[in-house]
Write a structure and sequence with these properties.
The chain contains seven helices and five strands. The chain is mostly helical and about 190 residues long. β4 and β5 form a beta hairpin. Bound molecules: zinc ion (ZN).
């Protein structure tokens, strides 16, 4: 059921709207260093494996307008997992379809996502090792009464959220979004 979300215009728009809401919270707070007024200073991104995206894609971000400060403030994102080139949605769906039992074989998954087998393996390692060893995970996993199975990520995590495929993927991206502003995702796993 997750496969259908790939290239789905509605979820794309929905996640963008979520990102705008998160950005608005940051903008209202002002500069984290001097409380100065923040100006829009988005990054242009070209997500790979996402040829269906019309036009340029921006990672929403701000820059302090105060001369001599100019600190950058980048909000959490439900669309981008770190600075890497793939959309979070792609990494989640590739993760769950690659777990087996999804009816999608390895070769088919490669074609569907448009990445090499090696990249898929790295992502697998990101879910089962890098993520679960992160400080974020150590703190966040306590939110679930029954422990999440690291070997069964991301499916076990998706299963904890209610609703349809779109609701679950969105909830998972929101759950992981604190990671999108720190350095775990700068790792070579992506
Ligand atoms: Zn400032």
């Amino acid at each position: 059921m997750y496969q259908r979300l790939l290239g789905h215009e509605r979820i794309r728009k929905f996640l963008l709207r979520c990102d705008h809401e998160l950005a608005e919270e940051i903008r209202r707070e002002g500069c984290p260093r001097c409380s100065g007024r923040l100006h829009q200073a988005n990054y242009l991104r070209k997500p790979r494996g996402d040829d269906s995206a019309p036009g340029p894609v921006f990672r929403l971000s701000f820059c302090c307008g105060v001369e001599g400060c100019r600190k950058r403030a980048t909000p959490r994102s439900l669309r981008f997992l770190g600075r890497k080139v793939y959309l979070g949605l792609t990494v989640v769906i590739a993760g769950v379809l690659g777990q087996g039992g999804s009816g999608v074989g390895a070769g088919q998954l490669q074609k569907l996502i448009g990445v090499s087998r090696r990249t898929l393996r790295r992502w697998r390692g990101w879910w089962t090792t890098l993520l679960v060893e992160s400080r974020f995970w150590q703190a966040a996993r306590g939110r679930f009464q029954t422990p999440i199975s690291a070997a069964d990520l991301p499916r076990d995590l998706l299963d904890r959220f209610p609703g349809n495929a779109r609701d679950r993927v969105t909830a998972l991206l929101r759950f992981l979004s604190p990671l999108t502003t720190n350095s775990l995702l700068e790792s070579p796993a992506f």
